[in-house]
């Protein structure tokens, strides 16, 4: 019995030690308290005194329950770093690096101010420090601290560029060619590191350094060929990286650098003698970034920013290139830019067809395709007012709308329909608000020809909309019919106004008012007002006939609206302004027209009321 009690005590001691070890493991791994509680419950269970051999099984039970729980909980805790861990691992390291660099900078400045280190030594220290920091950063990358490593590389690369800048610009230790080659070597080395380490951020560092190099080595001299050839090499390199790697953002960075250098050079050195060479380089840059959205590799990320980069680049590149061409040719021959606009339209039509043949993401490719098509149409629209003058611009937009409508019908494209409506709206707006026609003959003149083209295009839109048999088509047809009638009325009314304006001008041949012509002038004015009423009544009657003939209530309602407007004019204006003869004719004609229309409605030929006509009723009897 004593031996049994001693064995029991020994087992309790072993169990207590094991529980303590488990507790220390839990504390070290920051486990949830449930496991500690569970272990304590297992440890607190009473051990039977009568059967010592039966006490041993709880030990394997404790061991078997721990392994599945410990890794799961520890991995979940390690995957979510808390604020303390982030501050300690990221921010304190960055602040520490900044503090060290600031301290070293103060020391070097103190040494430079006291002439402890000469210019050559200063540059050498900068180069060695930059290289050392880049090499030192690799040790952190090897241990998994990639962000920290790239931050150190940015500091080291920046020190190298600044040291080479000081060697050339500040101390004149090396010629510009040597400094350029050394900066180019730094850029190339950074690009190689970006490629080997699959780091887009390093490629961005390389581009930033590459585009900064001409600024750091600038001597104030015009070296257009060398500058733009170097920029073209950088752009092609960025395009190559975007093709081989899913690094589309590099294209935006490259375009921004190219645009800044181009604008800076243009504002300082450009003149008309450099036109052809500058246009050639601008076209080269445009071509690189025009094909970039087609060739750039699609990344795994489906973020909205990644998807919008090709669209933004295509739009900004097209607008920027055309603006450059227009500015350069404005003083020489501004109309020549219309041919550039048409050429760009052809280029984007070609790119649109190439986009359709692309493999990969069909939705993204279709979006780029539609943007290219929109740019092509936009350049055609811009070319018309540049090349043409006066009402020919309006006619050009109407013709463009007709062509777009026909193409949209052939290819079943809603986008082209929208552009056709846009071109038509531009034409109508210019026709009504801007165009100022000077006509010498009635009806057969340029104004009526322009209105006729507009009416013909609106008729095509109405026909096309009625053939679609959907809500959008019916709406387009209805709006087109209304616009058609309004334009026809406006055109005829302006013909009346011009005819009588010429009659009034004939009464003052020398531009001087003759009081003796007052009676004749008043007679012409009265005749003009009567002609307006007669024109509108005749047009309303014509619409009513068409409405009954085509069995179209929509046309009949337009006729009723125009007739109601004419009634208001006759009763409110003509009765006080027209003389007795015109007044009599106006009322008689209007009354006869209203009676005729009323009779047609009373006969109910179109069965509008749902009742039988009198003839049908008598025949049935």
Structural description of this entry:
The structure is a single chain. The chain has 621 residues and is mainly alpha-helical. The chain folds into 5 domains: 2-76; 95-219; 227-371; 388-506, no CATH class; 536-620, no CATH class. 82% of the residues lie in helices and 0% in strands. It has helices at 2-29, 33-44, 58-78, 83-113, 119-142, 146-170, 176-197, 200-216, 224-244, 249-269, 275-295, 304-333, 337-356, 362-387, 391-411, 414-433, 446-468, 471-506, 518-549, 553-577, 580-603, 614-620. Helix 8 packs antiparallel against helix 9 (224-244), helix 10 (249-269) packs parallel to helix 12 and helix 13 runs antiparallel to helix 14 (362-387). It is elongated and about 135 Å long. Mean pLDDT is 80; it is low at 33-80 and 613-621.
The amount of helix comes to over 70%
Q: What does the main sheet amount to? A: none
Structural class per helix/strand content? mainly alpha
Strand-residue fraction? under 5%
Q: Work out the count of structural domains.
A: 5
Morphology call: elongated
Give the secondary structure arrangement, pairings included:
Elements: H1 2-29, H2 33-44, H3 58-78, H4 83-113, H5 119-142, H6 146-170, H7 176-197, H8 200-216, H9 224-244, H10 249-269, H11 275-295, H12 304-333, H13 337-356, H14 362-387, H15 391-411, H16 414-433, H17 446-468, H18 471-506, H19 518-549, H20 553-577, H21 580-603, H22 614-620
Helix pairs in contact: 1-2, 5-6, 6-7, 6-8, 7-8, 8-9, 8-10, 9-10, 9-11, 10-12, 11-12, 12-13, 12-14, 13-14, 14-15, 14-16, 15-16, 15-17, 16-17, 17-18, 18-19, 19-20, 19-21, 20-21
């Amino acid at each position: 019995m004593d031996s049994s009690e001693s064995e029991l005590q020994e087992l309790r001691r072993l169990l207590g030690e094991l529980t303590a070890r488990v507790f220390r493991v839990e504390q070290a791994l920051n486990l949830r308290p449930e496991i500690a509680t569970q272990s304590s419950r297992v440890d607190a269970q009473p051990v039977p005194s009568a059967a010592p051999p039966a006490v041993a099984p709880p030990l394997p039970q404790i061991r078997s329950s721990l392994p599945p729980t410990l890794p799961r909980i520890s991995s979940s805790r390690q995957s979510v770093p808390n604020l303390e861990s982030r501050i300690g691992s990221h921010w304190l390291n960055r602040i520490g690096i900044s503090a060290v660099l600031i301290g070293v900078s103060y020391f070097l400045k103190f040494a430079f101010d006291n002439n402890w280190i000469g210019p050559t030594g200063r540059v050498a220290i900068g180069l060695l420090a930059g290289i050392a920091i880049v090499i030192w950063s690799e040790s952190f990358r090897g241990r998994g601290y990639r962000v920290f490593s790239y931050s150190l590389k940015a500091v080291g690369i920046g020190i190298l560029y600044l040291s080479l800048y000081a060697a050339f610009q500040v101390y004149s230790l090396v010629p510009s060619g040597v400094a350029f080659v050394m900066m180019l070597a730094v850029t190339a080395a950074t690009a190689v590191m970006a490629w080997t380490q699959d780091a887009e951020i390093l490629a961005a560092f390389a581009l930033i350094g590459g585009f900064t190099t001409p600024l750091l080595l600038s001597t104030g001299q015009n070296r257009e060929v060398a500058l733009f050839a170097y920029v073209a090499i950088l752009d092609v390199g960025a395009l190559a990286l975007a093709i081989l790697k899913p690094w589309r953002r590099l294209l935006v960075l490259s375009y921004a650098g190219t645009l800044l250098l181009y604008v800076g050079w243009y504002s300082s050195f450009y003149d008309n003698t450099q036109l052809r060479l500058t246009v050639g380089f601008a076209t080269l840059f445009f071509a690189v970034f025009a094909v970039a959205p087609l060739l750039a590799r699609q990344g795994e990320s489906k973020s909205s920013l990644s998807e919008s980069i090709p669209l933004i680049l295509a739009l900004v590149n097209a607008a920027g290139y055309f603006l450059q061409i227009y500015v350069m040719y404005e003083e020489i021959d501004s109309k020549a830019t219309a041919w550039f606009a048409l050429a760009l339209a052809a280029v984007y039509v070609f790119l649109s067809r190439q986009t359709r043949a692309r493999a990969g993401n069909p939705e993204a490719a279709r979006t780029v395709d539609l943007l290219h098509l929109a740019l092509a149409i936009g350049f055609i629209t811009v070319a018309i007012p540049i090349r043409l003058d006066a009402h020919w611009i309006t006619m050009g937009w109407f013709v463009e709308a007709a062509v777009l409508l026909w193409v949209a019908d052939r290819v079943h494209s809603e986008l082209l329909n929208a552009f056709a409506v846009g071109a038509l709206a531009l034409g109508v707006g210019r026709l009504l608000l801007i165009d100022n026609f000077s006509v010498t003959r009635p009806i057969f003149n340029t104004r009526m020809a322009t209105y006729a083209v507009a009416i013909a295009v609106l008729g095509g839109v109405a026909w096309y909309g009625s053939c679609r048999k959907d809500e959008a088509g019916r709406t387009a047809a209805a709006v087109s019919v209304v616009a058609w009638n309004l334009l026809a009325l406006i055109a005829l009314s302006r013909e009346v106004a011009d005819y009588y304006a010429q009659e009034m001008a004939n009464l003052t041949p020398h531009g001087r008012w003759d009081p003796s012509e007052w009676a004749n002038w008043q007679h012409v004015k009265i005749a003009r007002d009567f002609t307006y009423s007669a024109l509108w009544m005749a047009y309303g009657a014509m619409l009513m006939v068409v409405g009954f003939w085509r069995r179209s209530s929509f046309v009949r309602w337009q006729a009723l609206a125009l007739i109601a407007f004419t009634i208001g004019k006759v009763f409110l204006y003509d009765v006080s302004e027209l003389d007795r003869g015109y007044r009599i004719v106006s009322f008689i004609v209007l009354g006869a027209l209203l009676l005729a229309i009323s009779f047609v409605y009373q006969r109910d030929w179109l069965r509008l009321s749902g009742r039988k006509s009198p003839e049908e009723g008598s025949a049935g009897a």
